[in-house]
């Protein structure tokens, strides 16, 4: 039963062990993964900028890069909530969409207002606020057969309010939802399904014309910044690339800081054995709620940066499947390590655009031609299954090979506490 | 000697099976107390009730000078109130280093915001605890690679690091060598000089070494209480331990 | 010359042909028939109808359809069909051929609309007494669509002789409808109302509503009018609607619209200012009105109405709803009757809603039960469960391509779908889920990967277009109790199917060794394993069973919904909700969960019928809240381990 060989001894000095202490407790800026990550991020951004200025890289490529960085940020948040804390949220992409909607409302409103003002300036009389509002209402909501401005748009003309909304609305929704769910100790697959259902509810609601957010039309023309019609898209795309890179870099630092030290230990403790953390005196629900809400806000920021580059946000973006893809990216990249999430998101989303964009050469089997636009999803789905089965560490596992991390145990990811039967395994 | 923990008239049943049946029990501070009983006697359920994992159907569990009702507190609140628990199977965070395990356990503010922003150095305190349980050399190792006995020690270390007033220790000696048992005994006796320590144990030899008051649990009730010799002489206890084979009640102690 | 002779020879014998009874009768009215007018023709029609000649209906029909011609040469009437330059003639007696005549040598009888209506009325009388019951039914259908007071008498006359009880009942019902609508006798109409208050048919409701039609009258109505109510502003009618009504009657506040105002302002801009106010300052509504008022005071523009003008106008012009029906006794009785009918309709609608909910619940049950038992036994969520539904539906489709007979193909498809989906389920369990034991979150994601791949593979094979899964004819109709309650046979069949599987599952779980093992593993896997139950085998069997049922559900769903590669994902969330609400691993729980979700969805749709999307949103929100109170579902698993 036991093979204890090391009997307790008290003669050892512990002060000399400092160097050997967990790398997680070292100052952030000395940690290799943080340094390497920031260096690569800076390199990519600067290279892209320079090449774009020289004309070697197209504006659409810069946008693709910028969008990818935003997806990486969302994946980073997903990794915090799932990879570290063990909450498999299938709803985080909804927060991404909400962030996009919040900023999209301002972009659309402000731009429409400028256009409307221009039109009304033809009028001999200067426009009144009522006239402006009516004209904007007709412009924006004509597609859903209405000219009324919904209450949701009350502050759409104010950039600060909408920016705050891009962060606070996801935060608030996550707070309420998380409070309800964690309070009643809904965990594991139950929570996953519940988050998925919530996401579905949100997307169905957005699909309605009377939701006040233009139904399935969504918000469009977001790539045009109000008042900056003179600035070419090639420049704007670089601005957003830099903003996305800064956000990702900042988020990476913040996330590294969060998962380091005792807080990180508690998070991983919750993932591995929630009940044990409770018996240590930590209010698990508060930690979960903090992480759930915080990552929702980060995802909201990612969405707010993403959609001005994508140009359009509509309810289909929020469909539950998008959130699952987020989990897929993190899983393929390697969960429980921050760079894994980033690698996964970047790798899979870029590969996906390459395959679905017709970049990959079709394979002619003689009797059948494999068109990657058709078969990419099959490839992705099956690859994902294989990764889950045989390489649970994902692409990040390759880094282990390189750094010769000793342990190859699956336990690195912690026991999967999603089980209903988690309780049974405990004494 | 006032009671630190006062359990009175507590019952708990699972689908009709009475795991704890009108149990009353109290322990003072400082005091060392052993609870013995056959399988299914309700020992683990008793611990679950005190630590808030399970809520009693009836009865009250009061703790401390203010006689706080533990049945109304969450597990985490109970833990913060000063009740530490060591599980039967070693339950440590295998993915994390010994140091991280200990630093999580060390008595310190527990709220998310404080833990996130205040980051006092815990190395000295963790080192001290590690020294007490003999894991100094292993501070930077992952707990998952420790041997079974070392995990037991780590968990005891985590219990000590919490600086609880009431220590609930479930079969601490399981899977230990005799030298380790001896040390465990010392440690528990030492802790009991200041605090209340409740030890659940099967092993009579170990209990004898603890040399303390013993409560015998049987079918969810306190069958007898007193010194080990006293309870061993009790015919009902003999009946329970020797008279009947241990066939029933797998459920309650699985 | 020879040609003319030929014509003459051809024509000659015809007048000599024996004139039949109809021709004789027609000839007596030849003048009126040739030049009918609404005033003069009634006696003619009456005479024709009264003749009782069996060929008369045909003639009347032809006459109304303008298929009768009069030969100029001899004034005889024929059925004539235009064929190029000639009319092909047939005898009015027996329809036998009667030669042809040049286009200009005969004239069509062209009864005008008024006359045609009179003819139709006369015709109805024949049709209502036609020996062929189908024709009588057709006549009644036509009558109920297009009732006129003239038809009342023929209808009444036909009732006593009617032998067919069903048709007689319809005739009586119709008689009352028409009586109510056009009858003169108050007592008869009240009796008709009384009769109608006992039904729920659309016709009855339409007839009662018809009695209660109102029109808007402005100003105090006369003593003779049958006033329904006065419309009070704010409670019965919104102010702007009231103003619009008044405007229709020409009663308007002399108000100036914003556009009018702006036009006046623009017209009066002088040197960058309007009546002394600089144009640039007119950037608000109040400023513009101020400027306008200045202009109005100086007489350039009409004055605006005062602030109380609207309320004064409304006070001076009360708006009433006045019944078209002058008799207050009739309208009062009709209103009461309509309330009664509506109450009954509401109850019937509730029953209908219940049936709808029941059928939806059966679908959810079939879709979710497999998920519930695999979740219960193995603790894993199978995201590809929806794809098993799809696989079942496509199996049905493929079978239909091979076996053209829909009944036979359905009989083959149901078990085959079970087998195919079960095989897919076992493959999934063996290849993926087995290897992720005790890692349910990863199982969830891995099965999601399978789900994505399967969807896309089926899309690649069968295309993105929905394919049909046609139900056999005997399932095509609907069972209708009355105009409100009805349910299609397919849904009844699905309900029966769900009942069968419920019975089968209960039998398997309660009466077989496998069921015992399944229950054991569900309640306590560790203990079950230590008792020698092979969890692998049980897992595989449950997976086969659960997936197979999903396959069958796929066929059933495909019969009334579209078969697409994405159809499974539409049901998966609902299925999860069913399982979560009902309680994991419990057949009864799934049944209750399905009933609750089906009922809830239909209920919300009923409250908000225009918007099924909103219904789903609210339902999901409700379920999220429900989980707060019963986190383990309605039928919670018991035992210490699930605390």
From TrEMBL, chain A:
<dbReference type="Pfam" id="PF02653">
    <property type="entry name" value="BPD_transp_2"/>
</dbReference>
<feature type="transmembrane region" description="Helical">
    <location>
        <begin position="90"/>
        <end position="109"/>
    </location>
</feature>
<dbReference type="InterPro" id="IPR043428">
    <property type="entry name" value="LivM-like"/>
</dbReference>
<feature type="transmembrane region" description="Helical">
    <location>
        <begin position="236"/>
        <end position="255"/>
    </location>
</feature>
<feature type="transmembrane region" description="Helical">
    <location>
        <begin position="34"/>
        <end position="52"/>
    </location>
</feature>
<dbReference type="InterPro" id="IPR017778">
    <property type="entry name" value="ABC_transptr_urea_perm_UrtC"/>
</dbReference>
<keyword id="KW-0812">Transmembrane</keyword>
<feature type="transmembrane region" description="Helical">
    <location>
        <begin position="161"/>
        <end position="182"/>
    </location>
</feature>
<feature type="transmembrane region" description="Helical">
    <location>
        <begin position="286"/>
        <end position="306"/>
    </location>
</feature>
<feature type="transmembrane region" description="Helical">
    <location>
        <begin position="338"/>
        <end position="355"/>
    </location>
</feature>
<keyword id="KW-1133">Transmembrane helix</keyword>
<keyword id="KW-0472">Membrane</keyword>
<keyword id="KW-1003">Cell membrane</keyword>
<dbReference type="GO" id="GO:0005886">
    <property type="term" value="C:plasma membrane"/>
</dbReference>
<dbReference type="GO" id="GO:0015658">
    <property type="term" value="F:branched-chain amino acid transmembrane transporter activity"/>
</dbReference>
TrEMBL record, chain B:
<dbReference type="InterPro" id="IPR017781">
    <property type="entry name" value="ABC_transptr_urea_ATP-bd_UrtD"/>
</dbReference>
<keyword id="KW-0067">ATP-binding</keyword>
<protein>
    <submittedName>
        <fullName>Urea transport system ATP-binding protein</fullName>
    </submittedName>
</protein>
<dbReference type="GO" id="GO:0005524">
    <property type="term" value="F:ATP binding"/>
</dbReference>
<feature type="domain" description="ABC transporter">
    <location>
        <begin position="5"/>
        <end position="244"/>
    </location>
</feature>
<dbReference type="InterPro" id="IPR003593">
    <property type="entry name" value="AAA+_ATPase"/>
</dbReference>
<dbReference type="InterPro" id="IPR032823">
    <property type="entry name" value="BCA_ABC_TP_C"/>
</dbReference>
<dbReference type="GO" id="GO:0005886">
    <property type="term" value="C:plasma membrane"/>
</dbReference>
<dbReference type="InterPro" id="IPR003439">
    <property type="entry name" value="ABC_transporter-like_ATP-bd"/>
</dbReference>
<keyword id="KW-0547">Nucleotide-binding</keyword>
<dbReference type="GO" id="GO:0016887">
    <property type="term" value="F:ATP hydrolysis activity"/>
</dbReference>
<keyword id="KW-0813">Transport</keyword>
<dbReference type="Pfam" id="PF00005">
    <property type="entry name" value="ABC_tran"/>
</dbReference>
<dbReference type="InterPro" id="IPR027417">
    <property type="entry name" value="P-loop_NTPase"/>
</dbReference>
<dbReference type="InterPro" id="IPR051120">
    <property type="entry name" value="ABC_AA/LPS_Transport"/>
</dbReference>
UniProtKB/TrEMBL annotation, chain C:
<comment type="similarity">
    <text>Belongs to the binding-protein-dependent transport system permease family. LivHM subfamily.</text>
</comment>
<dbReference type="InterPro" id="IPR016024">
    <property type="entry name" value="ARM-type_fold"/>
</dbReference>
<feature type="transmembrane region" description="Helical">
    <location>
        <begin position="543"/>
        <end position="563"/>
    </location>
</feature>
<keyword id="KW-0812">Transmembrane</keyword>
<dbReference type="InterPro" id="IPR017779">
    <property type="entry name" value="ABC_UrtB_bac"/>
</dbReference>
<keyword id="KW-0029">Amino-acid transport</keyword>
<keyword id="KW-0813">Transport</keyword>
<dbReference type="GO" id="GO:0022857">
    <property type="term" value="F:transmembrane transporter activity"/>
</dbReference>
<protein>
    <submittedName>
        <fullName>Urea transport system permease protein</fullName>
    </submittedName>
</protein>
<dbReference type="Pfam" id="PF02653">
    <property type="entry name" value="BPD_transp_2"/>
</dbReference>
<feature type="transmembrane region" description="Helical">
    <location>
        <begin position="575"/>
        <end position="600"/>
    </location>
</feature>
<feature type="transmembrane region" description="Helical">
    <location>
        <begin position="410"/>
        <end position="428"/>
    </location>
</feature>
<dbReference type="InterPro" id="IPR001851">
    <property type="entry name" value="ABC_transp_permease"/>
</dbReference>
<keyword id="KW-0472">Membrane</keyword>
<keyword id="KW-0732">Signal</keyword>
């Amino acid at each position: 039963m036991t093979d204890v060989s090391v009997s307790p001894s008290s003669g050892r000095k512990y002060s000399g062990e400092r160097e050997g202490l967990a790398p997680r407790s070292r100052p952030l800026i000395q940690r290799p993964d943080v340094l390497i990550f920031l260096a690569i991020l800076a390199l990519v951004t600067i290279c892209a900028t320079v090449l774009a200025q020289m004309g070697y890289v197209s504006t659409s490529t810069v946008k693709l890069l910028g969008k990818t960085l935003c997806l990486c940020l969302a994946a980073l948040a997903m990794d915090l909530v799932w990879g570290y804390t063990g909450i498999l949220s299938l709803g985080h992409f909804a927060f991404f969409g909400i962030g996009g909607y919040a900023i999209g409302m301002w972009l659309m409103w402000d731009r429409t207002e400028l256009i409307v003002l221009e039109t009304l300036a033809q009028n001999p009389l200067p426009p009144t606020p009522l006239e402006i509002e009516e004209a904007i209402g007709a412009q924006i909501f004509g597609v859903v057969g209405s000219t009324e401005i919904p209450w949701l748009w009350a502050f759409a003309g104010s950039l600060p309010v909408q920016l705050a909304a891009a962060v606070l609305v996801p935060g608030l929704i996550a707070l309420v939802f998380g409070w309800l769910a964690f309070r009643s100790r809904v965990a594991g697959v139950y929570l996953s399904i519940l988050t998925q259902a919530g996401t579905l509810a949100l997307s169905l609601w957005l699909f309605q014309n009377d939701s006040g957010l233009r139904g399935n039309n969504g918000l469009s023309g977001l790539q045009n910044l109000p008042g900056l019609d003179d600035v070419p898209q090639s420049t704007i795309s670089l601005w957003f690339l830099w903003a996305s890179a800064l956000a990702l870099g900042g988020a990476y630092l913040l996330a590294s800081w969060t998962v380091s030290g005792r807080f990180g230990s508690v998070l991983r403790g919750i993932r591995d054995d929630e009940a044990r953390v409770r018996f240590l005196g930590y209010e698990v629900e508060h930690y979960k709620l903090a992480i759930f809400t915080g990552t929702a806000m980060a995802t909201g920021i990612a969405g707010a940066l993403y959609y001005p580059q994508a140009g359009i946000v509509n309810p289909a973006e929020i469909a539950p499947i998008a959130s699952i893809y987020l989990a897929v990216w993190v899983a393929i990249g390697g969960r429980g390590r921050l760079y894994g999430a980033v690698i996964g998101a970047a790798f899979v989303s870029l590969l996906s655009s390459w395959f679905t964009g017709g970049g990959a050469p079709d394979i002619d089997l003689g009797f059948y031609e494999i068109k990657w636009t058709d078969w990419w999803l099959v490839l992705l789905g099956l690859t994902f299954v294989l990764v889950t089965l045989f390489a649970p560490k994902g692409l990040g596992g390759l880094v282990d090979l390189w750094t010769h991390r000793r342990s190859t145990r699956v336990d690195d990811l912690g026991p999967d506490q999603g089980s209903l039967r988690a309780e049974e395994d405990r004494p | 000697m006032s009671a630190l923990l006062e359990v009175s008239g507590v019952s708990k049943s699972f689908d009709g099976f009475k795991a704890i049946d009108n149990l009353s029990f109290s322990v003072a501070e400082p005091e060392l107390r052993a609870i013995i009983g056959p399988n299914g006697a309700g020992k683990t359920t008793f611990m679950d009730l005190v630590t808030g994992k399970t809520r009693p159907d009836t009865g009250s569990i009061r703790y401390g000078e203010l006689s706080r009702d533990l049945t109304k507190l969450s597990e985490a609140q109970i833990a913060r109130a000063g009740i530490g628990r060591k599980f039967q199977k070693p339950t440590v965070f295998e993915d994390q280093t010994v140091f991280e395990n200990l630093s999580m356990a060390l008595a310190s503010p527990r709220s998310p915001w404080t833990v996130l922003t205040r980051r006092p150095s815990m190395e000295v305190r963790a080192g001290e605890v590690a020294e007490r349980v003999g894991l100094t050399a292993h501070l930077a190792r992952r707990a998952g690679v420790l041997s079974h006995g070392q995990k037991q020690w780590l968990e005891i270390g985590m219990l000590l690091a919490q600086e609880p007033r009431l220590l609930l220790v479930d079969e601490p000696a399981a899977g230990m060598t005799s030298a380790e048992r001896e040390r465990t005994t010392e440690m528990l006796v030492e802790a009991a000089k200041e605090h209340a320590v409740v030890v659940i144990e099967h092993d009579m030899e170990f209990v004898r070494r603890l040399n303390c008051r013993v409560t015998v649990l049987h079918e969810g009730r306190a069958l007898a209480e007193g010194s080990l010799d006293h309870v061993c002489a009790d015919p009902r206890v003999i009946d329970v331990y020797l008279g009947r084979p241990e066939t029933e009640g797998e459920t309650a102690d699985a | 010359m020879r040609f003319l002779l030929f014509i003459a020879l051809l024509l000659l014998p015809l007048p000599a042909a024996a004139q039949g009874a109809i021709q004789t009768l027609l000839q007596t009215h030849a003048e009126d028939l040739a030049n009918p007018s609404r005033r003069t023709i009634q006696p003619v029609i009456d005479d024709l109808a009264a003749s009782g000649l069996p060929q008369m209906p045909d003639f009347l029909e032809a006459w109304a359809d303008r298929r009768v011609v009069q030969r100029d040469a001899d004034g005889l009437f024929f059925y004539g069909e235009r064929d190029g330059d000639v009319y092909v003639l047939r005898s009015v007696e027996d329809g036998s051929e009667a030669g042809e005549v040049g286009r200009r040598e005969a004239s069509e009888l062209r009864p005008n609309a008024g006359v045609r209506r009179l003819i139709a009325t006369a015709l109805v009388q024949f049709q209502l007494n036609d020996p062929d019951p189908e024709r009588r039914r057709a006549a009644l259908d036509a009558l109920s669509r297009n009732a006129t007071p003239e038809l009342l008498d023929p209808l009444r006359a036909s009732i006593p002789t009617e032998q067919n009880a069903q048709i007689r009942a319809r005739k009586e019902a119709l008689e009352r409808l028409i009586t109510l609508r056009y009858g003169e006798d108050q007592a008869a109409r009240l009796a008709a109302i009384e009769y109608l208050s006992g039904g729920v048919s659309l016709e009855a409701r339409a007839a009662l509503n018809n009695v209660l039609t109102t029109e808007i009258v402005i100003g105090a109505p006369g003593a003779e009018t049958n006033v329904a109510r006065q419309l009070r502003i704010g409670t019965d009618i919104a102010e702007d609607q009231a103003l619009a009504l008044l405007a229709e009657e020409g009663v308007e506040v002399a108000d100036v619209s914003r556009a009018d105002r702006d036009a006046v302002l623009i017209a009066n801009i002088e040197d960058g200012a309007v009546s002394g106010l600089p144009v640039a300052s007119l950037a608000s509504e109040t400023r513009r009105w101020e400027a306008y008022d200045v202009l109005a005071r100086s007489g350039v523009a009409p004055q605006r109405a005062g602030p109380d003008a609207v309320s004064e106008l409304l006070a001076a012009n009360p708006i009433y709803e006045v019944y078209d029906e002058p008799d207050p006794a009739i309208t009062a009785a009709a209103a009461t009757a309509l309330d009664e009918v509506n109450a009954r309709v509401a109850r019937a609608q509730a029953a209908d809603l219940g049936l709808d909910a029941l059928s939806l619940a059966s679908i959810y049950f079939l879709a979710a039960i497999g998920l519930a038992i695999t979740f219960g036994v193995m603790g894993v969520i199978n995201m590809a469960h929806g794809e098993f539904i799809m696989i079942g539906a496509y199996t049905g489709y493929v079978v239909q391509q091979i076996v053209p007979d829909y009944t036979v193909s359905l009989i083959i498809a149901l078990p085959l779908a079970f087998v195919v989906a079960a095989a897919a389920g076992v493959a999934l369990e063996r290849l993926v889920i087995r290897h992720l034991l005790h890692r349910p979150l990863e199982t969830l994601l891995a099965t999601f990967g399978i789900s994505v791949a399967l969807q896309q593979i089926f899309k690649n094979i069968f295309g993105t277009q929905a394919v049909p899964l046609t139900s056999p004819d005997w399932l095509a109709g609907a069972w209708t109790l009355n105009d409100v309650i009805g349910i299609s046979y397919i849904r009844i069949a699905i309900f029966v199917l769900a009942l069968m599987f419920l019975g089968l599952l209960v039998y398997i779980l309660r009466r077989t060794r496998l069921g015992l093992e399944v229950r054991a593993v569900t309640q306590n896997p560790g203990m079950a394993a230590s008792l020698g139950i092979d969890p692998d085998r049980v897992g595989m069997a449950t997976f086969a069973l659960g997936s197979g049922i999903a396959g069958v559900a796929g066929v059933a769903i495909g019969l009334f919904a579209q078969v697409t590669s994405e159809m499974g994902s539409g049901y998966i969330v609902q299925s999860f909700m069913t399982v979560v609400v009902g309680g994991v691993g419990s057949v009864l729980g799934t049944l209750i969960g399905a009933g609750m979700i089906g009922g809830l969805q239909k209920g919300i749709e009923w409250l908000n019928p225009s918007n099924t999307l909103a219904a789903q949103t609210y339902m999901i929100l409700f379920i999220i809240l429900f989980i707060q109170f019963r986190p383990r579902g309605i039928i919670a698993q018991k035992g210490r381990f699930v605390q």
